[in-house]
Amino acid sequence: MKAIIATTVFGVIMMFAGLWVNDKKSIAGLATFLFAALLGVTIWDLTTTSVNSPKSLFNDMLRSEHYSLWFNTIMTGCSLLYVLLMGKEVQKVGKYVSEYFALIFFILCGLYLLSMYNNLLMMFIGIEILSIPQYILAGSDKRNLKSSEASLKYFLMGAFSTGILLMGITLLYGAARTFNITEMVTLMHSDALNPLALAGILFIMIAFSFKVSAAPMHMWTPDVYDGSPTVFTAFMATVVKSAAFFAFLRLFQVSFNSLSEHWVMVLAIITAATLLVGNVTAVFQQSVKRMLAYSSIAQAGFMLFAVLAVNAVAWQGIIIYAVAYSVATIGIFAVLVKLKDYTYDGFNGLAQREPLLAFVTTIFLFSLAGIPLTGGFMAKYYVLLAVVQQGQLMWLVIFALLMAAISVYYYFRVIIAMYFKAGTPEISSPVTGGDKFMLVVTCALVILLGVLPQLFLTKV
Amino acid sequence: MELYDILFWVLSAIAVSCALGVILSRNPVNSVLFLILTFFAISGHYVLMNAQFLAIVNIIVYAGAIMVLFLFVIMLMNLNADVEPQKGQLVQLAGVISGGILFLVVLASIKTAKAEIMDKTSTDIGLISNLGKVLFKEYVLPFEISSVLFLSAMIGAIVIGKKEEVKTSATAKMEHVSE
Amino acid sequence: MILILLILIPFLTGIISFTTKGDGAKSLGLLSSMLTLAVAAYVSGANFAAPITFTKPWIPILGTQFSLMADGMSSMLCLLTGIVSLVVMIMNVNKPVERAGAFYGFLLLSQAGLMGVFLASDALLFYVFWELALIPVYFLCSQWGGEKRIPVTFKFFIYTFVGSLMMLAGLIYLSLQTPGVTSYSWNDIVRAGTSLPADQQMWLFWLIFIAFAIKMPVFPFHTWQPDTYEQSPTPVTIILSALMVKMGLFAVLRWLIPVLPAGVAYWSETVVILSVVGIVYASCIAIVQTDIKRLIAYSSIAHMGLMCAAAFTNSAVGMHGIMVQMFNHGINITGMWVIVSMIEQRYGTRDMTKLGGMASAAPAMAIALVIISLANIALPLTNGFVGEFMLFNGIFRADTAGHILIMVVAGLGIILGAVYTLNMIQRTAYGDAGSAVVVKDLSVNEYLGLAIIISLILFLGVYPKPLLDLTAGVAGMMVR
Amino acid sequence: MSLFLEISFSAMANGLHNWLAGSISNATLVSVTEMAIAGVSLLLFLVPLCFFLGYMERKVAAFMQIRLGPNRVGPKGTLQIVADTVKLLFKEGLTPNASDKFLFNLAPIIVVVTSMLAMAPIAFAKNFQIWDINIGVLYVSAISSLAVIGILMAGWSSYNKYSLLGAMRSGAQIVSYELSVGLSLISIVILTGSLRMSDIVASQADGWWIIKGHIPVIISFVIFLIASTAEINRAPFDLAEAEQELTAGFHTEYSGMKFAMFLLAEYINLFIVSAIAATLFLGGWMPFHLGNWSFFNNVMDYIPGSLWFMGKTFLIIFIIMQFRWTFPRLRVDQLLTLEWKYLLPISMVNVIIVTMMAIFGWHL
To answer: Hey, how many other C-beta atoms are within 10 angstroms of the C-beta on D28?
Structure first.
């Protein structure tokens, strides 16, 4: 709860900073400081809440379980990392730098709500707070038509999915007569299963599939991720997506756990489709940015595993997946914004020109591909473990592994371009020592995640 | 048939047919007008449930403000029926089939559901004082936290809507003249 | 504690090697591989009463530990790895390498990965090393390989990666079946696997076996191999064929046969038939090859096929034969590649139709070629004979229905092997020196490298007892 | 307070209801009939009202400009407006060829209907209201904001650039000024604690809000007057029909009866706005009382409530009519600046002050 207040206040501070501070650099500096402070607040939240007894806040609107707070902390850490890596690039997007940071703070507010909600209303508001700043950030590069297109597309699709979500919530309310997701469990089972609940679950599932860009509701993702300013794509594709997943998992784990026989198959098919579409389409991309958009769909397929496996491991799975995926993707985007040409050819010969950049990119790509000793491996491991433990869906596990192998193809294309092809990549902004330091730190994080994942996990 | 039932069915018929009108009419202006009518019918339902405050707020916010701005934009852009892009036959067919299936699912679930028939005896839940109490006691957090949502929407209006200052010679000249 | 050195030495020197400039990497590599060999020799030579183990907690919540174990088979393979690596380093001394730091770094890293694979007694750790051994090889091939290296090595990588992911799924499944908490330790995995019902073992078998089958490679999964061998730089080809294929076989012996006995029993005939088909198929193709590298690649498939067939025949002699043959084949094939690389270096081609006259131009090299080739076709008094004899013996004693037929067909492979090997010797060593190339005979480092190999070939051909003793205990354990 | 007119009004309403209930057995039919009667009587009230307002407007204009105004038709020109109406009735109702005919004809009806709907909660006298809805104030502001839809429809469907521009201006104006209107209404709602018209009137039994509420309420009152003048598109905020620029704004293409309907709506709106101001700030039908002067108060009590109400309403109408001849018309940017940069912030601050006043009981 402290974090929610803090992030809102920080957002407002950023807005006022835009009024009083004209220097973009000091605004970014202030933002970095505030993000660090926010991380402090989330840690404070985490340490002051006991592990075993979740605090119920505001008439059970929120419940601060330990893993929720843990997720908050980790995601705030990722945001701090993001700001440290990309703060400089944010300044280049447009005029309203302080507003961009304010919006990111508000997004984090949505994230906190989504990780702790115990009421469908809070979930809805959380999703909206998470989404609306994104529509704006997507369209923030006004000199670029693609950015505007991305914004509009994202907005329309988001609005559409919100409508579906509301419909689902309504039907659920009709079935359970409550918005409280923990009370809902008992009420839906008080007598024979109400078909309204099933329809509601279906609608909510579709709406969340939109938000997390699972096939066939993924159509917006490539265009939006491609069109948005790269810095903001990095944030959208990582922290925000993880938050949507956490919310997805939370609802389905807490409320619909006992109904899983009814929806698991549907979600399994969605998962399979997501993996197939994301991986296969990514293979054919020529632009790395677009490839990363499809790869984020593919990774979403893996994160859906955590939702599919309705067991305790899923929590750990989603947390470790979120952090591993976020850190690696933020890292790759941090490298990407340094380049002028986003196609594969733009990476040609990077290893000769900027060996360090090429090396860290390789590690990030390893992580995304799920090579052992990187965070991505542990992440994939955990979600797979969760599903294998659930036991029913071995076919999906094997399918996913095949798809993971396909993913190696397009991730390694970047590596091949960097190391084995000749060329001189054009760098859009100089790579300073600070950048290098941060990239190495990120890289170290990725490896640390892969070697000692328990540091990033919490008791569930 | 009591007056209540008559009104209920009439309003429902209006709401549904106008909602259909929204998506079926070719002219966007007509769509918006249909939407306004739909909101009215829904407000009527609120009144029937003795939720007058909700009814009026629905009218103020949607029919009075949002839809007016919508009308504004559409009229200014002068969208016409012929501007609307036509989808291919196949896409239409696919849409109809998938939409129909979804409709069937929902219909089936609602038909078999043991939905409670709405209590016709007037409740006071929709009255403004009760609503206010619920809003500020039970639902105070969602109520307050929505301000973050609106704040970000307002920032968005500024970030997206305001012109980036790209001073070309033409605008500089215009500024000069206006001074 | 000594076991961790086997991994740490090449790993750390590998990482340091990335930072070196110029020839520093070469001497570092040489030094490192000598050290490693010394440790490996100590591990396999010293007579320990029980297998040496090394265990440290790693990720307790996953039930995985950093645990290593060296029994006879492991220490033998570590020794092989040490020897082969040293030979590679020695042979490479006088060869110029672009970006030597990275090259030797990757070589050493892959060596570390291999050591890890052979030593790991924890399934997840095994998997991690399995991948760790693969990735440096991928980079080595893609960066320093031949013309078509990028697509070819990519194919190789994808193949093996798919396989290992399947294995991962199988291992996860197994680890969840362990009694009590999830555990990956070898003992628990074996306990979990053996207690599974037969039908589950049957599908788990393929999940796990496919990774090993691709690595070995067994007949339908072999398509990556000739291309990759052809395109890789010779040191990498040596690593691939002498050591990495052994990873597959080793894994079958360590992680498949004891773990899923019912599954192995059910599928062994299929695998044996596939292997034998592979022997004949690869031998036939080898006959028509004109590129020496491809020829040896196919011959390697044939040899591995024989070992694989023996592995699934369930006889003690066969098992023991495999252990011995793994070592011997590793030595022999290294020798073959060394010779081929020297030929390529001197003649500028690998095309047998354009070669010839080596015996007169470089007699020492020709002698080496003949000895190693004869060992490769398992002539008595060479080390190859001991292993293959035991393998055939094992297949012959198998309790499967068509074991005689299988042995006969597999024996056909040996004959075919003699055909193409002798053909190769004839074409390269004798005949007309087609082009007037001045061919230099062996240089000092080459002498040294070949001396190690040839002395091993002859020594183990005459006196195989140390090798047999080293692996005797383990082989007995493998039989159902 | 026993006022004979007030008694007679409510008695009439009650008697009617009892009689209907007695003679018709079906309850549904009773309510339908009642509604019909109320509607008809509203119409019977509104038409003469508008006649009078039209006449008044001319007379006030003449008064402001020191001239006589209508004085030929009927005594003192009282029948002038009747003559005008007859003229309008007999004029041909033209419909432009390119227009959207359905919307074109629908627009004036919507405008009139919305303004009539807003009459529902207005308390003419004690217990004399069509619908004493518990959110009366909100209802009025909601309904009055709907008129803009009719205006936009009229402007767009005419297929005339002047019409469209006029409608756009009107839309922007109404939507913006609605905020200030709402906020100034809210200040009274805060003080009263109810949105119900009858409660608001009852709360002023011991003094009108404009007196009880000190300066903040006076500020709200002024803001309300300004903003509502803008909301009903009257001068000096009549940009929507600025004849020098836009011919006649959104009703350029209208003639005859349809034009008359817009006129009718305008006058009804004027009346409603004034009635609301009178109800909220000036005590509605409550007589004027002064402290403990019981004699004075008793005398005031003898004046019927409906007269009080009408008197206050027409006082405000008179003020608004005077605006028209006092201030020059604003430019569009001035109009929006006035609202967004001055009125809205002022009313926001004012609402805060009023809230504090209500909490701490600073008002009388």
So the answer is: 15
The per-residue pLDDT for D2 is 43
Q: Residue A309's CB: how many other CB atoms inside 10 A?
A: 28
Tens of pLDDT, residue by residue over C318-368, are: 888 888 888 888 888 888 888 888 888 887 778 887 777 777 778 888 888
The length of chain D is 364
**Which tokens belong to D294?**
């019981």
Structure tokens at A55: 């605090």
Distance of residue A112 Cα from the nearest chain B Cα, in angstroms? 12
Mean pLDDT of the B124-149 span: 85
Q: What are phi and psi of C237, to 5 degrees?
A: -60, -40
AA identity, residue C257: I
**Tokens representing C141?**
């091939």
| CA angle (D69, D72, D76) in 5-degree steps | 65
The pair of three-digit structure tokens given for residue C18, joined into one six-digit string: 């990335």
Dihedral sign computed on CA atoms, order C408, C414, C416, C418: negative
User: What's the rounded Cα separation, in Å, for the pair C431 and C435?
Assistant: 12
- Using the 8-state DSSP alphabet, how is residue B120 labeled? -
- pLDDT interval class at B53 (50, 70, 90): confident
Token pair listed for A3 = 């974090």
Q: What is the pTM of this model?
A: 0.85
Q: Does B76 touch chain A (CB under 8 A)?
A: no
CATH of span B3-178:
1.20.120.1200
**β-bridge partners, C122:** C185
The C-alpha atoms of residue D120 and residue D141 are separated, in whole angstroms, by 12
**Comparing C-alpha atoms, which of A46, A70, A171, A68 is closest to residue A113?**
A68
DSSP annotation of A438: H
Compute the distance between CA of residue C233 and CA of residue C245 in angstroms, rounded to an integer. Answer: 17
How many CA atoms lie within 13 Å of A380's alpha carbon, on the beta-carbon side? 26
Q: Domain spans of chain A?
A: 2-456
Q: Are D253 and D99 in contact (CB under 8 A)?
A: yes
| SS3 label, residue C59 | strand
A136, B110: Cβ pair inside 8 Å? no
- The whole-chain average pLDDT of chain D stands at 82
User: pLDDT class for B166, splitting at 50, 70, 90?
Assistant: low
pLDDT given at position C102: 85
Among A121, A392, A261, smallest CA distance to A252 is for A261
Residue D356: count of CB within 10 angstroms of its CB: 12
Helix, strand, coil proportions of chain A in percent (round to 5)? 80, 5, 20
Cα A210 versus chain centre, distance: 13
Average pLDDT over residues C379-399: 83
Nearest neighbour of A129 by CB, restricted to B108, B140, B152: B152
Picking from D134, D286, D129, D139, the residue whose alpha carbon sits closest to that of residue D195 is D134
**CB contact B112 to A (< 8 Å):** yes
CA distance D19 to D14: 9
Judged against a pLDDT cut of 50, whether residue A161 lies above it is answered with: yes
Q: Are D147 and D25 in contact (CB under 8 A)?
A: no
Name chain A contacts of C172, Cβ cutoff 8 Å: 381, 384-385, 388
Please tell me which of the candidates A59, A106, A199 has its beta carbon nearest to residue B106: A199
| pLDDT class of C394 with cuts at 50, 70, 90 | confident
Ramachandran bin of D61, using left for φ above 0, alpha for ψ from -120 to 50, beta for the remaining angles: alpha
The closest alpha carbon to C171, from C65, C67, C259, belongs to C259
Question: Are the beta carbons of A452 and C135 separated by less than 8 Å?
Answer: no
Nearest to C111, CA basis, from C144, C71, C143, C77: C77
d(CA A41, CA A45): 6
CA distances from B154 to A27, A143, B148, B151, D102 (A): 20, 21, 10, 5, 37
Residue A155 has pLDDT above 70, yes or no: yes
